[in-house]
Amino acid sequence: MRDGFDLKEELKKLPDRPGVYIMHAADDEIIYVGKAINLNKRVRSYFRAHVNRGPKIDKMISLIDYFEYIVTDSELEALVLENTLIKEHSPKYNTMLKDDKSYPFMKVTVQEDFPRVLFARQMRRDGAKYFGPYTSAVAVKDTIELVKKLYGIRTCNKALPKEIGVGRPCLYYQMGQCEAPCQGYITKEDYKKKIDDLLGFLSGDYKKVIRELEAKMKENAAKYEFEEAAKYRDLIESVKHVTGSQRVVKTEGVDRDVIAMARRGEETVVSVFFVREGKLLGREHFHMNYSGMSEDNTGAFTTDNSQKEVTPIDGQIMEDDNKTGSEILTAFIKQYYNGTPFVPNEMLVEYEVEESELIEEWLSKLRGGRVHIITPQKGEKYKMIDLARENAAVVLSRDLEKIKREQARTVGAANELAKMLGLPCADRLEAFDISNTSGYQSVASMVVFEKGRARKNAYRKFKLRTVKGPDDYKSMEEVLTRRFTDERFEVLPDVLMMDGGRGQVNVALKVLDKLGLDIPVCGMVKDDNHRTRGLYYNNQEINFPSNSEVFGMITRLQDEAHRFAITYHKSLRGKEQVHSILDDIKGVGPARRKALMQHFAEIGKIKQASVEELKKVRGITPEVATEIYNFFHE
Question: What pTM was estimated for this model as a whole?
Answer without folding.
Answer: 0.39
